[in-house]
Amino acid sequence: MLRGISPLLSPKLLETLYRMGHHDEIIFGDAHFPGESCNDNIIRADGLRIDDLLDAVLPLFVLDHVIDQPVMMMGPLLKIKPTLRLQLIIKKCMTDTMRL
């Protein structure tokens, strides 16, 4: 039995994260993201917020410390910034990754 894994993470998403390696990328897109035109491997998480998914995924996942920006956020305007909660999650995961 696995412990400490968020119930927000589906078995298919956990399998995908498990199989990811160096320099692989994953996109967490909203309902308007054209996923089918970008990739054949689509994992739906209807009704979940992106920051909740990231909050569940990042503690399980080592971010690539070799690249300058291992997490990127898209927004329609440059003035849109990640929520303070998401900024803190990313900062904590980056700090944890640097300790490895």
* Tally of discrete structural domains: 1
Detail the poorly predicted runs: none
Residue share in helix: 25-40%
Helix/strand class = mainly alpha
- Radius of gyration of CA atoms, rounded to a whole number: 14 Å
Task: Describe it.
The protein has 100 residues and is an all-alpha fold. It has one domain. Helix content is 32%, strand content 0%. It has 3 helices and no strands. It has helices at residues 11-19, 50-57, 84-98. The longest helix has 15 residues, at 84-98. It is globular, with a radius of gyration of 14 Å. The two termini are 25 Å apart. The mean pLDDT is 80.
Descriptors:
100 residues, mainly alpha, 3 helices, 0% strand
Question: Would you spell out the secondary-structure blueprint of this structure?
Answer:
Blueprint: H1 11-19, H2 50-57, H3 84-98
Brief description of this entry?
This protein is an all-alpha fold and 100 residues long. It is built from 3 helices and no strands.
